[in-house]
Amino acid sequence: MVPPAVIAPSILSADFAQLGKECSDIMKNDAMWLHIDIMDGHFVPNITFGAPVVTKIRPHVDRPKAPKGKGTFDCHMMIAEPKKWIRDFQKAGCDLYCFHYEAAVTSTAAENPTDQSETKTSPKEIIRFIHENNMLAGIAIKPETEVDVLWEILQNPNKEEVPDMVLVMTVHPGFGGQKFMASELPKVKALREAYPELYIEVDGGLGEGTIDQAAEAGANVIVAGSAVFGAEDPAGVIKVLQESVERRRQSAL
Q1: Using CA atoms, how far apart are residues 2 and 199, in angstroms rounded to an integer?
Q2: Beta bridge pairs of residue 40
Q3: Is the pTM of this model over 0.85?
Q4: b vs e for 213-224, b when ≥16 Cβ sit within 10 Å of the residue's Cβ?
Q5: 188 φ/ψ angles, rounded to the nearest 5 degrees
Q6: Residue 178, pLDDT above cutoff 90
Q7: Four-CA torsion 192, 35, 50, 83, nearest 10 degrees
Q8: Annotated active-site positions, please?
Q9: Per residue in 86-124, pLDDT tens?
């Protein structure tokens, strides 16, 4: 069965001068998760924030009472060395650590920010390490990456090395405000057909004008930044997004 709709506003579009309050308020407006974009200036050209900011906003949002529940901090790690930062983000309050496939296949096995290693890591190894550190694991793919790279990972009989969520980027990672890329939705559709119960997230250009396409393809986790934080009625926008996903979900039952 297709999992429930999850609306995850991206705090990249929030007012950083009052970030804690913005996070608290958006949860009161019926957001389910918070999407936290971590950019290091290497994997992507932009720089946002790190674990200390996550630590500061965590007290403003109640921890989820169950895995994938309300209050989940969905940390989208657009960083070159994803394994290095797993422990720090777990300590900061991250609940779901979503790394990029493209970084995983080129990065090292170092397990702490100050460590150096000549040994390469892998997506499966990173997923296992995330689970060992008591977080959910997500894996993301850029628009230029084919969905085929995920099949071996998802088919792994070792569940500790299988992601809890897949993120299909519908813009190029690194900057907000880009135009939605409908060209990426066949990846979502292929994933949903193969894995009906998988949490599938889409991120980039999502709003009231594009949500129906994403929902129809099978996405159930919707990241929206300016469409929510920039709205006069954030709760109303969240409701529209959620209802679109739920309509598709009900039709699939």
Answers
A1: 8
A2: 47
A3: yes
A4: bbbbbbbbbbbb
A5: -60, -45
A6: no
A7: -20
A8: 37, 203
A9: 999 999 999 999 999 999 999 999 999 999 999 999 999
